[in-house]
Design brief:
The complex is a heterodimer of chains A (about 675) and B (about 325). Chain A has about 675 residues and is an alpha/beta fold. Chain A folds into two domains: about 15-375 and about 410-420, Methylmalonyl-CoA mutase (TIM Barrel); about 515-660, Rossmann fold, CATH 3.40.50.280. Chain A contains 26 helices and 15 strands. In chain A, the strands form three sheets. Chain A has a five-stranded parallel β-sheet with strand order 1-10-9-8-7. Chain A has a five-stranded parallel β-sheet with strand order 2-3-4-5-6, with helices on one face. Chain A has a five-stranded parallel β-sheet with strand order 12-11-13-14-15, with helices on both faces. In chain A, helix 12 links the parallel strand 9 (about 265) and strand 10 (about 300-305). Classes of the chains: A alpha/beta (about 675), B alpha/beta (about 325).
């Protein structure tokens, strides 16, 4: 050994390092973005709140409790300008998780950028703009499938023409995995969704044949990576190869650059645990390996969840901790110095062949169901997803799939990370909603009403005639139209939609046989006392569309012998109360994951009391911080369940017993 | 006024809380509840104010029944009618549980108390009407202008629903070939109108409609309306509702007699379920039971009919 330093190898350029963030208000989120950029983040990933994602103004009834919760509220151009104040959009790479309202948020972004002096052609970033997975898993859709696809295509045509560096669509398999999809389902549903969209764009004919390969080249993906990180890496290699094949064979794309499978990733949140939450740091690190290890299938952009996501919303420090993980892997380790480590591995090649074949079978099945749009409308794809998740949860319940701290190695010293006064999570300032509404009211007062009306008429006409909505949307943005007004026109022209819930036909894992037997006995006992079979109304109030929890509760409650009324997502407290009245429900289960429980639960109680149904027991499940549990119980909630309650049969017993008690039966 | 009379009054006034309470009693197996339910049903059944028209909607699984049902409800609302819906879902035979999902297909404007949807599990009646459905329909009819009864279309249910409803719409899937089969399969007894759904499929739907027309001529039922509809787009729904209205108008005063006959048919069936087919046979069979009921005047309380259908002791 000599004492001279080793020759440094050349490092590849790291992926774009981002954190999915946004909360409370445009100004607060702007401060957070500047902070994150100062800490070495290389791109932005904007989280919007649910009213913005579903096209409602902050003062709409459905927005109650949701404003500024899971992301930033953007109600108009003023908010968009404030969000990027001091951040030069001509130089930034901005990813926007926006779908149903993607044309509108893109219009606001373009308008805000042009006001900064940036050119459209220089804008780089992504609008997620993938509606298939909204219908199947995430729930922030607004319109029926066909017009949804049309708006997606409007965004594509516009950006291909005017913003060539923009990714108009980010096809997501991410949320499918969060909803319980296996790698096979994830890959095939995502690819099938991309094909449906590309076919639609091609059939529309507003893009000439010579330009079409560019459309293909602008489609990017957003994937998930879970704990089985070898399998995940294989999945991405398979997906990349399949995408290239599709490009060549189905669309005749030849230019290698346009055939490249480009994806961003947020690693899995579904597997993060509420118990011993510090372990999630390791999980996140291992999950990340799946998307960076293989150079051939390496992510273009990575966002990591924070260790405390199963507890509530992460604080800036929690996000910084995840950001540092990316930087350590990119800059301290030698990962970026080598070519692909797995080319030539026989194990990897075998796994690839197996997955490729399974994906082909699944895609053939989707085609046999009439393609993605039909299979979404019929609920066929949704049923497969719900069944896969039922299966997954059953394996965890029975202990066949190990989760450290949950169904094994559960002994733990108290975690100092959650001992602080904030319980280790961020709480959104309850004033945020009121302040956002005040700003909105002031904004409306300051507009030229005639200009607004004319711009909305232009938008309505375009929507009706089939012209692109993009230019009229930008005009709307410039004259001060609000998010709710834009969404209102779309709903008026295209109608609203309620996707199939997928729970009706599912049968499958039922946890342990003894556990299910106990649950059935409890349900029978209580039903006998009630005089008719225990009827449970499962409701999702507010705008949150993450329905996995509600679906699994509905399926298990049926298997335990209850009659279950489940109407799907996005119900007002009033709809839940009138549903309970009409159906003669004995108990109500509410699923809330958006952090809006302290606003929504009292609203449901008030609506029930107004109909004289005050004694129906209300059970709440969701991401409920420990600090809020007492508050909910004080309001009269019979029982609070969180992600740590994974034994569904035990939950059924508790629901039955709580129902018996509330109706004056001796349990 | 007894509590049951109080509930009956609230039902007749179209009060939602009263309807809910009556339906809960009807579905209960507790003796005190059953007695109260009988009193409520008797009180509304014989009341002169009971109006409501009942339309049954059935068809094979996957034909788009609930979506079309939702469109019909919306059309009725647009015409200013209050609407009650009874949606019957199958139960799991293993657990007795059920997911009642049909109400999600009926888009109910927020704050619209003019629609009242009750899901009922079919329980041990495989795919047929839920126990108590006929009583529930009576209650709905007393409270609302229009009642839609939606059932899963397999086997027994079509006959069940046609006995329970004033008019029955059978939804037909547009597909070549099996149309005549469908009509032959004993279904011609029960439908008053046919809807060829998924009219948005175009040529296939049109061919099905023509085949149905031809088949109806063979069966000498050419007066049966065949309406192309689309649950997806809503086309044809207003025409279907018009056709139903015309049928009611054509029935005129005959409706009361039709209802009485259907009620009696239902009562005999319920009595047979209660006492068994042997008991029915011992007392002279189906025709004899109807004969005993003929001795009771029209408008007799359902409980009195039930007691007379098969004499006990």
């Amino acid at each position: 050994m000599t004492d001279s330093a080793p020759t440094p190898r050349e490092k590849a350029r790291p992926w774009v390092i981002r954190t999915y963030s946004g909360h409370s208000s445009a100004a607060a989120s702007n401060a957070l973005y500047r902070e994150n950029l100062a800490r070495g983040q290389t791109g932005l990933s904007v989280a919007f709140d649910l009213p913005t994602q579903t096209g409602y103004d902050a003062d709409h009834a459905l927005a109650t409790g949701e404003v500024g919760k899971v992301g930033v509220p953007i109600g108009h151009l003023g908010d968009m300008a404030a969000l990027f104040d001091g951040i030069p959009l001509g130089e930034m790479n901005t990813s926007m998780t926006i779908n149903a309202t993607a044309p509108w948020l893109l219009a606001l972004y373009v308008a805000a950028a042009e006001r900064q002096g940036a050119k459209r052609a220089d804008l780089r970033g992504t609008t997620q703009n993938d509606l298939v997975k909204e219908f199947l898993a995430r729930g922030t859709y607004m319109l029926p499938p066909e017009p949804s696809m049309r708006l997606q295509a409007d965004v594509i045509s516009f950006t291909v023409r005017e913003m060539p560096r923009w990714n108009p669509v980010n096809i997501c398999s991410y949320h499918l995995q969060e909803a319980g999809a296996t790698p096979v389902l994830e890959v095939s549903y995502a690819l099938a969704g991309a094909l449906a969209l590309l076919d639609h764009v091609r059939e529309r004919g507003d893009i000439d044949e010579a330009t079409f390969p560019k459309v293909f080249g602008r489609i990017s993906f957003f994937v998930n990576a879970g704990m089985r990180f070898i399998e995940e890496m294989v999945k991405l290699r398979v997906m990349g190869a399949a995408w290239e094949r599709i490009g060549r064979e189905r669309y005749g794309v030849t230019e290698p650059k346009l055939l490249r499978f480009r994806y961003g990733v947020q690693v899995n949140s579904l597997g993060l645990t509420e118990q011993q939450p510090e372990n999630n740091v390791y999980r996140i690190a291992l999950e990340m390996l799946g998307v960076v290890l293989s150079k051939r299938a390496r992510a273009r952009a990575v966002q990591l969840p924070a260790w405390n996501e199963a507890l509530g919303l992460p604080r800036p420090w929690d996000q910084q901790w995840s950001l540092r993980l990316q930087q350590i892997l990119a800059h301290e380790s030698d990962l970026l110095e080598y070519g692909d480590l797995f080319d030539g591995s026989t194990v990897v090649a075998e796994l690839e062949a197996e997955l490729t074949a399974a994906v082909e079978r699944e895609m053939a099945w989707i085609a046999s169901e009439g393609g993605v749009v039909k299979a979404v409308q019929s609920g066929a794809m949704k049923e497969r997803l719900v069944a896969a998740n039922t299966e997954r949860l059953g394996r965890i319940e029975r202990g066949e799939q190990k989760v450290v701290g949950v169904n094994c190695f559960t002994e733990s010293a108290p975690s100092p990370l959650v001992a602080g006064a904030d319980g280790g999570i961020m709480t959104v300032d309850p004033q945020a909603e009121r302040e956002q509404i005040e700003r909105l009211v002031a904004w409306r007062a300051g507009r030229n009403d005639a200009e607004v009306a004319a711009a909305l008429t232009g938008l309505r006409d375009a929507a009706k005639t089939g012209d692109s909505v993009m230019d009229p949307s930008i005009r709307c943005a410039l004259v001060g139209v609000t998010t709710g007004e834009w969404g209102g026109v779309m709903r008026e022209v295209f109608g609203e939609y309620r996707a199939p819930t997928g729970v009706g036909a599912v049968s499958g894992a039922k946890g342990s046989a003894e556990g299910l037997q106990r649950a059935r006995e409890a349900v029978e006992r209580v039903s006998a006392g009630l005089g008719r079979r225990l009827k449970l109304l499962v409701g999702k109030p507010g705008l949150d569309g993450h329905s996995n929890g509600a679906e699994q509760i509905a399926v298990r409650a049926r298997d335990a012998g209850m009659e279950v009324v489940y109407e799907g997502i996005r119900l007002t407290p009033e709809q839940i109360a009138s549903g309970a009245e009409e159906e003669g429900a004995h108990a109500i289960g509410l699923s809330i994951l958006s952090g809006s429980h302290l606003a929504l639960v009292p609203a449901v109680f008030a609506a029930l009391k107004a109909r004289g149904l005050g004694r129906i027991p209300v059970i709440v499940g969701g991401i409920i911080p420990e600090l809020d549990r007492g508050a909910l119980e004080a309001m009269g909630v019979a029982r609070v369940f969180t992600p740590s309650d994974f034994d569904l049969n035990a939950i059924m017993v508790e629901i039955a017993e709580a129902t018996g008690r509330a109706h004056g039966l001796n349990a | 006024m007894t509590p049951a009379q109080g509930i009956a009054e609230r039902v007749l006034a179209g009060e939602r809380g009263g309807v809910a309470r009556a339906l809960n009693l009807i579905e209960s197996s507790r003796n005190d509840d059953r007695e109260a339910a009988r009193a409520v049903v008797d009180a509304v059944a014989s009341h002169p104010r009971i109006g409501g028209q009942v339309v049954g909607l059935t068809g094979p699984p996957g034909v788009g029944k609930s979506t079309l049902g939702g469109r019909i409800v919306a059309e009725w609302r647009r015409r200013g009618h209050t609407v009650g819906v009874i949606a019957v879902d199958p139960s799991s035979r293993a657990s007795g549980g059920a997911v009642l999902g049909d109400r999600s297909r009926i888009a109910k404007p927020a704050g619209d108390d003019g629609v009242f949807i009750r899901s009922m599990a079919a329980r041990d009646r495989l795919g047929g009407l839920a126990p108590g459905s006929v009583d529930a329909i009576l209650v709905m009819r007393a409270a609302f202008d229009r009642v839609l009864v939606e059932t899963v279309g397999v086997g027994q249910s079509e006959t069940d629903v046609s006995t329970a409803a004033d008019q029955t719409v059978v939804i037909v899937q547009p597909a070549g070939g099996d149309t005549l089969q469908f009509i032959k399969a004993g279904l011609m007894e029960i439908f008053d109108l046919l809807a060829v759904n998924k009219a948005d499929l175009g040529a296939i739907a049109e061919r099905t409609r023509r085949e149905l027309r031809a088949a109806l001529r063979v069966l000498d039922r050419q007066d049966t309306p065949v309406v192309p509809t689309s649950g997806a787009t809503g086309t044809g729904v207003a025409e279907l509702v018009d056709a139903v209205d015309e049928r009611f108008a054509a029935l005129g005063d005959g409706l009361a007699g039709l209802r009485e006959a259907k009620l009696r048919e239902h009562v005999v069936r319920t009595a047979t379920e209660l006492h068994g087919t042997l008991a029915l046979a011992r007392h002279g069979g189906h025709a004899a039971a109807l004969g005993r009921l003929a001795a009771l005047p029209p408008g007799s309380p359902p409980s009195a009919l039930l007691a007379a259908a098969i004499p006990t002791s």
